[in-house]
Design goal:
Layout (H helix, E strand, L loop, with lengths): L1 E11 L4 H8 L5 E2 L3 E6 L7 E6 L2 E17 L2 E14 L2 H7 L4 H4 E12 L17 E10 L2 E11 L2 H16 L15 H6 L1
Antiparallel strand pairs: 1-6, 1-9, 2-7, 3-4, 3-7, 4-5, 5-6, 7-8, 8-9
Protein backbone atom coordinates (compact mmCIF):
# COMPACT_ATOMS: atom_id res chain seq x y z
CA UNK A 1 0.00 0.00 0.00
CA UNK A 2 1.44 3.34 -1.09
CA UNK A 3 0.08 6.64 0.30
CA UNK A 4 0.51 9.70 -1.92
CA UNK A 5 -0.50 13.35 -2.13
CA UNK A 6 -1.05 14.63 -5.67
CA UNK A 7 -2.15 17.48 -7.88
CA UNK A 8 -2.62 17.15 -11.64
CA UNK A 9 -3.91 19.06 -14.65
CA UNK A 10 -5.24 17.80 -18.01
CA UNK A 11 -5.24 20.04 -21.08
CA UNK A 12 -6.77 19.03 -24.44
CA UNK A 13 -4.77 18.90 -27.67
CA UNK A 14 -1.12 18.57 -28.50
CA UNK A 15 1.48 19.51 -25.90
CA UNK A 16 2.74 23.05 -26.63
CA UNK A 17 6.42 23.23 -27.58
CA UNK A 18 7.03 25.91 -24.97
CA UNK A 19 5.80 23.56 -22.22
CA UNK A 20 8.22 20.86 -23.35
CA UNK A 21 11.07 23.40 -23.45
CA UNK A 22 10.23 24.68 -19.95
CA UNK A 23 10.00 21.15 -18.52
CA UNK A 24 13.46 20.18 -19.76
CA UNK A 25 15.19 23.41 -18.71
CA UNK A 26 17.56 22.73 -15.83
CA UNK A 27 15.99 19.36 -14.93
CA UNK A 28 17.22 15.79 -15.10
CA UNK A 29 14.42 14.12 -17.06
CA UNK A 30 13.90 10.40 -17.61
CA UNK A 31 11.65 9.20 -20.45
CA UNK A 32 9.50 6.13 -19.97
CA UNK A 33 8.62 3.77 -22.83
CA UNK A 34 5.27 4.26 -24.52
CA UNK A 35 2.68 2.10 -22.78
CA UNK A 36 -1.05 1.43 -22.74
CA UNK A 37 -2.95 1.23 -19.45
CA UNK A 38 -6.50 -0.16 -19.34
CA UNK A 39 -8.85 1.64 -16.92
CA UNK A 40 -12.03 0.08 -15.64
CA UNK A 41 -14.83 2.61 -15.91
CA UNK A 42 -16.69 3.20 -12.64
CA UNK A 43 -19.66 5.42 -13.62
CA UNK A 44 -20.43 8.20 -11.18
CA UNK A 45 -17.23 7.85 -9.16
CA UNK A 46 -14.04 9.87 -9.31
CA UNK A 47 -12.75 8.60 -5.95
CA UNK A 48 -11.45 5.24 -7.19
CA UNK A 49 -9.28 4.18 -10.08
CA UNK A 50 -8.76 0.61 -11.26
CA UNK A 51 -6.30 -0.10 -14.02
CA UNK A 52 -4.46 -2.97 -15.63
CA UNK A 53 -0.83 -2.11 -16.22
CA UNK A 54 2.15 -4.22 -17.23
CA UNK A 55 0.97 -7.51 -15.73
CA UNK A 56 -0.57 -6.14 -12.56
CA UNK A 57 -3.78 -4.57 -11.42
CA UNK A 58 -3.59 -1.24 -9.57
CA UNK A 59 -6.32 -0.01 -7.26
CA UNK A 60 -6.19 3.63 -6.22
CA UNK A 61 -8.61 5.22 -3.74
CA UNK A 62 -8.86 8.88 -2.74
CA UNK A 63 -8.70 9.12 1.06
CA UNK A 64 -9.06 12.89 1.45
CA UNK A 65 -9.15 16.15 -0.46
CA UNK A 66 -7.28 19.26 0.66
CA UNK A 67 -9.23 21.42 -1.77
CA UNK A 68 -8.02 24.08 -4.16
CA UNK A 69 -4.53 25.46 -3.64
CA UNK A 70 -2.82 28.34 -5.44
CA UNK A 71 0.80 27.65 -6.37
CA UNK A 72 1.58 30.76 -8.41
CA UNK A 73 -0.23 33.59 -10.17
CA UNK A 74 -0.95 31.24 -13.05
CA UNK A 75 -1.48 27.88 -11.34
CA UNK A 76 -4.23 26.60 -9.08
CA UNK A 77 -5.19 22.98 -8.53
CA UNK A 78 -6.92 20.38 -6.36
CA UNK A 79 -4.64 18.64 -3.88
CA UNK A 80 -5.75 15.12 -2.96
CA UNK A 81 -4.47 12.21 -0.86
CA UNK A 82 -4.61 8.69 -2.32
CA UNK A 83 -3.76 5.11 -1.36
CA UNK A 84 -2.56 2.68 -4.02
CA UNK A 85 -2.35 -1.11 -4.03
CA UNK A 86 -0.52 -3.07 -6.75
CA UNK A 87 -1.26 -6.75 -7.27
CA UNK A 88 0.48 -9.09 -9.74
CA UNK A 89 -1.82 -10.65 -12.28
CA UNK A 90 -1.95 -13.26 -15.01
CA UNK A 91 -2.71 -10.68 -17.68
CA UNK A 92 -3.54 -13.23 -20.38
CA UNK A 93 -6.21 -14.91 -18.28
CA UNK A 94 -7.52 -11.55 -17.07
CA UNK A 95 -7.78 -10.18 -20.60
CA UNK A 96 -9.79 -13.18 -21.75
CA UNK A 97 -12.37 -12.84 -18.98
CA UNK A 98 -12.58 -9.19 -17.84
CA UNK A 99 -12.03 -7.00 -20.84
CA UNK A 100 -13.18 -9.22 -23.64
CA UNK A 101 -15.45 -6.26 -24.47
CA UNK A 102 -13.07 -3.32 -23.88
CA UNK A 103 -15.32 -0.68 -25.38
CA UNK A 104 -18.02 -1.58 -22.86
CA UNK A 105 -16.01 -1.90 -19.65
CA UNK A 106 -12.49 -0.60 -20.20
CA UNK A 107 -10.82 2.48 -21.60
CA UNK A 108 -7.37 2.08 -23.14
CA UNK A 109 -5.12 5.05 -22.37
CA UNK A 110 -1.87 5.39 -24.32
CA UNK A 111 0.79 7.23 -22.31
CA UNK A 112 4.14 8.81 -23.02
CA UNK A 113 5.64 10.03 -19.75
CA UNK A 114 8.63 12.11 -18.74
CA UNK A 115 9.60 12.16 -15.07
CA UNK A 116 11.80 14.47 -13.02
CA UNK A 117 12.53 13.94 -9.33
CA UNK A 118 11.51 16.86 -7.16
CA UNK A 119 14.42 18.60 -5.48
CA UNK A 120 14.52 18.48 -1.71
CA UNK A 121 13.11 21.72 -0.43
CA UNK A 122 12.09 22.65 3.07
CA UNK A 123 12.22 19.56 5.28
CA UNK A 124 10.21 19.13 8.49
CA UNK A 125 12.25 19.74 11.67
CA UNK A 126 14.47 16.81 12.59
CA UNK A 127 14.15 15.10 9.19
CA UNK A 128 17.44 14.34 7.46
CA UNK A 129 17.91 14.95 3.75
CA UNK A 130 18.26 11.24 3.02
CA UNK A 131 14.84 10.70 4.62
CA UNK A 132 13.17 13.28 2.40
CA UNK A 133 9.73 12.39 1.12
CA UNK A 134 10.19 11.16 -2.45
CA UNK A 135 8.36 13.14 -5.07
CA UNK A 136 8.13 13.49 -8.81
CA UNK A 137 7.10 15.98 -11.44
CA UNK A 138 5.44 14.24 -14.38
CA UNK A 139 4.69 15.49 -17.87
CA UNK A 140 2.76 13.14 -20.14
CA UNK A 141 1.03 12.91 -23.48
CA UNK A 142 -2.11 10.78 -23.20
CA UNK A 143 -4.49 9.46 -25.84
CA UNK A 144 -7.89 7.93 -25.14
CA UNK A 145 -11.04 7.36 -27.19
CA UNK A 146 -9.47 9.12 -30.17
CA UNK A 147 -8.54 12.30 -28.28
CA UNK A 148 -5.08 13.63 -27.38
CA UNK A 149 -4.36 15.48 -24.14
CA UNK A 150 -1.31 16.48 -22.17
CA UNK A 151 -1.04 16.37 -18.41
CA UNK A 152 1.26 17.79 -15.77
CA UNK A 153 1.28 16.48 -12.23
CA UNK A 154 3.09 16.42 -8.92
CA UNK A 155 3.07 13.27 -6.79
CA UNK A 156 4.69 12.84 -3.39
CA UNK A 157 4.61 9.62 -1.36
CA UNK A 158 4.81 9.31 2.39
CA UNK A 159 2.88 10.30 5.50
CA UNK A 160 0.10 12.66 4.46
CA UNK A 161 1.05 15.79 6.43
CA UNK A 162 4.70 15.68 5.37
CA UNK A 163 3.87 14.70 1.79
CA UNK A 164 1.41 17.59 1.49
CA UNK A 165 3.93 20.11 2.86
CA UNK A 166 6.61 18.86 0.47
CA UNK A 167 4.22 18.91 -2.50
CA UNK A 168 3.07 22.47 -1.78
CA UNK A 169 6.62 23.77 -1.38
CA UNK A 170 7.88 21.94 -4.48
CA UNK A 171 4.94 22.80 -6.72
CA UNK A 172 5.11 26.46 -5.76
CA UNK A 173 8.82 26.63 -6.54
CA UNK A 174 8.44 24.84 -9.89
CA UNK A 175 5.32 26.69 -11.06
CA UNK A 176 6.82 30.09 -10.27
CA UNK A 177 9.66 29.42 -12.73
CA UNK A 178 9.86 31.56 -15.85
CA UNK A 179 7.99 29.87 -18.67
CA UNK A 180 5.84 27.65 -16.44
CA UNK A 181 2.45 26.90 -18.04
CA UNK A 182 -0.75 28.51 -16.84
CA UNK A 183 -2.81 25.83 -15.11
CA UNK A 184 -6.35 26.63 -14.02
CA UNK A 185 -8.49 24.97 -11.38
CA UNK A 186 -11.01 23.99 -14.06
CA UNK A 187 -8.40 21.65 -15.58
CA UNK A 188 -7.24 20.09 -12.29
CA UNK A 189 -8.48 16.50 -12.31
CA UNK A 190 -7.38 13.09 -11.13
CA UNK A 191 -7.21 10.31 -13.72
CA UNK A 192 -10.61 8.88 -12.59
CA UNK A 193 -12.23 12.32 -12.91
CA UNK A 194 -10.64 12.93 -16.31
CA UNK A 195 -11.91 9.56 -17.57
CA UNK A 196 -15.40 10.37 -16.29
CA UNK A 197 -15.39 13.55 -18.37
Amino acid sequence: MLPTVEVRWFLPGAMPEEVWAWFQEGRLVSAEPLRVDHYLRVPGSDAAGIKLREGRIELKVRTSSHGAMRFSQGAEGLVEAWRKWMLPLDETQFAATWYAQPSRYWTAVQKERWISALAVGTLPPGRAANQATPGMLELARVRALGDTWWTLGFEVSGMEAEAKAFLLESAQRVLEEAGAPRLGLEASWSYPRWLER
